[in-house]
Amino acid sequence: MSARTLEVPLKREDVLHFLGYRGRGAPAAWIEAGLGPAMEDARALIAPRGVSVSPPAEAVLALGLQPRVGARLELGLVTVGPALGKRVVELLERGEPTRALLLDASGSAAVEEAADALEGTLHPGPVPRRFSPGYGDWPLEAQRGLFPLLPHAELGVQLLPSCLMSPHKSISFAVWVGGEEPRGVPSECRGSRCASCGWTTCPYRHDAPPEGQPGGGTGDEDGGNVMSESLRPKLTLFPEAEPARIVEEGCRVLETVGVRVENDAGRRLLSGAGARETNGRHHIPETLVRASLAGAPGRLALHDVRGGLACDLGGDRVHFDPGSAAIHVLDAGTGRRREATTADVIRLVQLVDRLPLYAAQSTALLPSDVPRELGDRFRLYLALRHGSKPVITGTFLKDGFAPMRDMLAVVRGGAAELAARPLAVFDCCPSPPLKWSDLTCQSLLDCARSGIPAELISMPLTGATSPVTLREAVVQHCAESLSGVVLHQLACPGAPIVWGGAPSAFDMRHGTTPMGAVETMMICVGYAQVGKSLGLPVHGYLGLSDAKTPDYQAGLESGIGAVLAALAGIHMVSGPGALDYILTQSLEKLVLDHEACAMALRLARGIARHGEDPVALIAELVDRGEFLSHEHTRAHWREELSVPSAAIDRQTYGDWEASGAKTALDRARAEVERLLSREKPPALPEDRLAALDEVMAAEARRVGWTLPRA
Question: Which tens digit of pLDDT belongs to each residue from 97-155?
Fold first, then answer.
């Protein structure tokens, strides 16, 4: 078809998106002052036009694409012309980089809107389907095959040796038209920018999803939005052969020292499998340990309440969730801790649901205004009713598992569906040294038989309940965790299990259990290396602090922990928001820790080689005198450079003073309230909400309590 003129509204929110504002606070004063004039200049300079073609069938494979049944491929090319780019260069040469930046962002928004407009002529649906070379897993080099198929001369667009285009404000794309709608496309999608959308598994995503979620570039994803040849930094504390030695020593501990099991069913399982019992301890043979390890799955996928993939625990993929389980909340008004209430738990759940780098909820707070015998199930009920993410949880009483399992099943739509798409993980904690209580062993067995993933939380306390030396503490952790694997796999071979823990380096001065000590972090990283060597999903308590308020100590301990966890490739990291030896949760710290997690995940993605010839690229940049407005910058800056929320200060000193000279805690308080003020519809349909309410109401009636209205 011949070139057509395209209508471009040039929306303010689209321009702000290209300036890094994606619903994260108000723009800086200098942006507010200059944005309107820049957009007016852009409207006068742009000439949006586009063209589309239907390529021959054989071109699909030649472009490196897989044919889609019942669909045809359309190719498109749009440009806003050269005038805006020339003006940007002029502004830079005159020493006006601020105006150049705002005008360039306006041009980027205009060409994206032009591409949206052209795509709208090719298919009727509201969902954006286009994808372009250099985005997702379609390499930039695909331009060389795509460009000859497009009538680019009609628009005056040329392909440069770097595979970028001139004029720079041009977009080439492909789009499938017709065929079946892929599963998983959100009905609420109305063409919003993908990078600001939380639906990370949408098949039409063409911007990189938030870091730390499936496809977010935090590890070794199998396809999707992956940077080519990423040099991912990794942290290990043991030489390559050391984990195998530690496992061997852990097996010898189980054979010689043995493990005490206070649960009748657990003892019967061990004795029936050949474990010898003497003086109340079961001595587990190494052959039984090895056989149990061989049957345990090496990967675990967790799904949100809608059934979408939320966490993929395997490889080097890293996911964060809040630390649990606190009994206090830090009061934002007084700055002191107090007992948590149901209202506090709901606010925490809602906040976590609005912070995208937390891949899962946790039952992070225990409300004090609920009967003690209902605490475990009620906090899960609140997480499911007011959140949408999978939940890390656990039982306090043996009779808690059944109603908690039933809640998960009604949310998922049945026990079989729950086993196929797990919605929760139950923490199961051996008591150091080398003991399983009646409660925690029963929870471990119940999880296995129900197909609900279990997470082993061994808790060696150096010098108090384990050897004081770090390596030997890891050996004890290994022995306790191996005993858990054996019990779990004997109950149901092949059931999903996670190698986790919550060790602590005992403070000899105060008799406390510091989770923010570097030695605690080292034990976590060490045992995670052992667990990964066994091919198991791993968990750790990091990214938390022993400080009593979100101060410098809290940032120091939490930030270091988050970085170590990400570099170690720990699959599930519990800790954000936690203070005071995990006794206190802080909503403000959850917001600040979210930024620490973002930095840690960005670091773990490493430095990528994108495929361009760097010499040719730099030569072109220098020759043209363009950096800020260059297509290479536009194509990569959002992927390469992180943009923090309003909780992080990157203003000039003058702007900081003018905006109130707010501290990090001040900004975090404001961000908490901003996020919680956003309306978010329930994730569950009414019938499942009613069924969930009924399970909890039945438990409340059993103890003579009335379930509060949701």
Answer: 889 889 999 999 999 999 999 999 987 665 557 888 877 667 878 899 999 999 999 99
562 with 516: CB under 8 angstroms?
no
> For residues 102 and 174, what is the distance between their CA atoms, to the nearest angstrom?
28
Mean pLDDT value of segment 480-503: 97
Rounded distance between C-alpha atoms, residue 408 and residue 410, angstroms: 6
Q: Which strands, in side-by-side order, build the sheet including 319-321?
A: 319-321, 572-574, 539-541
What is the per-residue pLDDT across 615-638, written as a single tens digit (0 to 9) for each?
999 998 998 888 888 888 888 888
Stretch among 33-47, 67-81, 237-251, 494-508 having the lowest mean pLDDT: 67-81
Name residue 145's amino acid. Answer: G
Look up residue 447 and give its amino acid. C
Residue 253 to residue 168: CA distance in whole angstroms? 65
Location of structure tokens 């070794």: 220
DSSP 373-431: GGHHHHHHHHHHHH--S-EEE--SSGGGHHHHHHHHHHHHTSHHHHHHS--EEEEE-PB
Q: d(Cα 30, Cα 41) in Å, to the nearest integer?
A: 17
Contacts of 653 (CB under 8 A, 6+ apart): none
Q: What is the pTM of this model?
A: 0.76
* Backbone angles phi and psi of 194, in degrees to 5: -65, -35
Please tell me the distance from the alpha carbon of residue 480 to that of residue 710, in angstroms, as a whole number: 40
Contact (CB, 8 A) for 21 and 173: no
* C-beta separation of 284 from 270 below 8 A: yes
Angle, CA 431 vertex, CA 427 and CA 433 arms, to 5°: 140
Tell me how far apart the alpha carbons of residues 688 and 686 are, in angstroms, rounded to a whole number.
Answer: 6
Question: What is the band of 65 on the pLDDT scale with cuts at 50, 70, 90?
Answer: confident
d(CA 42, CA 107): 6
Q: Would you call 599 exposed, middle or buried from its count of C-beta atoms within 10 A (0-12, 13-18, 19+)? A: middle
Distance set, CA 134 to CA 201, 209, 217, 602, 634 (Å): 19, 15, 15, 19, 11
Beta bridge partners of 572: 319, 539
pLDDT at 17 over 50: yes
Helix crossing, 29-45 with 83-93: angle to 10°? 140
User: In a 3-state reduction of DSSP, which class is residue 114?
Assistant: helix
* HEC profile of 253-318: HHHHCCEEECCHHHHHHHHHCCCEEECCEEECCHHHHHHHHHHCCCCEEEECCCCCEEEEECCCCC
Q: What percent of the chain has pLDDT over 70?
A: 90
Can you list the alpha helix ranges (DSSP code H) found in 455-551?
Answer: 470-491, 518-533
Two tokens at 663?
A: 């501290």
Digit-coded pLDDT (tens) for 562-603: 999 999 999 999 999 999 999 999 999 999 999 999 999 999
- DSSP string of 527-572? HHHHHHHTT--BEEE-S----SSSSHHHHHHHHHHHHHHHHHT-SE
* CB-CB neighbours of 241 under 10 Å: 8
pLDDT in the model for residue 126: 56
